[in-house]
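Input chain follows. Return structure tokens only.
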Amino acid sequence: MQYVGKSSVTTDLQSDVLLPCNFKSTLLGSNQTADIAAVWRQTTTPADNLVEISLQGKVSFWNNRDRRIKTFPKLSESGNFSILLRNVQQSDLGLYRCDLHEGINCMIAYQEVQLGLAAVSEYQKTIIAGASGAAVLVFLFAACVCYIRTKRRHHLRQDRVKAFTLANPVYDSIRHTKKDGQSRHNGLRLTTVYASVGFPETSTEKVIYEEIVSPDKFCPAQEDDAKLRSGTPMERVTMDILGTFLTTDVRNHYFFVAMDYFTK
């Protein structure tokens, strides 16, 4: 038995590929009617016999891979027993053997064909790189658009909060109290605040002002003052929320106010 050699063939999946098998005329002999044939098989475990092609061009299939194997019987008399494998699948990859037989149990020679996947070409690499670069640019553009829109919405919200803060009677009362040099608890009375900012006495802002700033709340009538006196720190504490104000960098726009009656 003579080993002719081994060849490597690469292809892409879903494409067609030619598996070559050529034997010299010295191996075939001069008798064109001799019982000589080539047998193709894939060297899996167990071996998968595919097709037998005789010297006279007779073809016998064992496994034609769903009719994906094509033979060339007219070429066999010249020693060419190549086959065409269509629509290559992942299971088709591997090592193939083309064995030349004379009779039933006499092998004359054989050759091997290694079928593998083709490497990515430079052109394909260029296409892939270009597509990847375009995808990155699209992503960056979308990110920039989203960032700009978010910043605009943030600025609009800041403007709305600023306008609301400046119109808030609580903010206005503190501003006037600081301007007049008066303490918070001896500051402007409600009627003065309403006159300066123009809010009706029935508004929600009136309730906020009364609860947080109003001297009448923090300094009740003299006859009830003894009830609110505290003899030790933290014996009596009052708390409330002040806002909304301009939003900070950490998105806060309220003040939490706490006061100890002992140290007020």
